[in-house]
Amino acid sequence: SRTLFVACVSPADESFAETINTLKYANRARNIKNHSVVNVVQPPAAAEREDIRIQKLQAELEALQEEKAMHQNLTGSLPPPPPIRSHEQAKAARFESGTPLRDLYEALQHVIGQLEQAPQSEVDSGTAI
Q1: With 0-12 CB in 10 A as exposed, 13-18 as middle and 19+ as buried, what is 26?
Q2: Is there a contact between 5 and 29 (Cβ–Cβ < 8 Å)?
Q3: How many CB atoms lie within 10 A of CB 114?
Q4: Of these four, 12, 39, 127, 128, which has the most CB atoms within 10 Å of its CB?
Q5: d(CA 73, CA 82)
Q6: Is the dihedral of CA 92, 97, 102, 106 positive or negative?
Q7: Using one digit for the tens of pLDDT, what is the confidence trace for 92-113?
Q8: pLDDT at 17
């Protein structure tokens, strides 16, 4: 890429010092050499972790395929698929009473209720709770 530098100078005697300083600065700026380097190399540890994860997933896939083939050989049919839970069932399971997520949800609902009942001046000043 190219960089353009425009130095404004004046032939007037009263601007002599400023013109000299501008030309010196322009000369220094002209001598600046920049080059960019793209750093895309992954650290070896991260690449190794990804390789190990890929190997584990491949081994798990092979084990499941073997299990499926063995079940099909013994029974003549495919194993039943795992039960599918609806979105509401999965959400309800996450929010069962006594779970940390449920406790946090209830605490936040309590704080929201207090803020809704407090006068606006207390909410603005931070003394509502």
Answers
A1: middle
A2: yes
A3: 13
A4: 128
A5: 19
A6: positive
A7: 666 565 566 666 777 777 777 7
A8: 92
Residues 97 and 106: their CA atoms lie apart, in Å, by: 10
How many other β-carbons are positioned within 10 Å of the β-carbon of residue 79?
12
Q: What dihedral do alpha carbons 109, 110, 116, 120 form, nearest 10°?
A: -120
Q: Report in angstroms the alpha-carbon separations of 127 from 20, 67, 106, 109, 112.
A: 63, 62, 21, 18, 14
CA-closest candidate to residue 19, choices 27, 30, 28, 8: 8
Structure token pair of residue 41: 């190399």
Residue 126, pLDDT score:
62
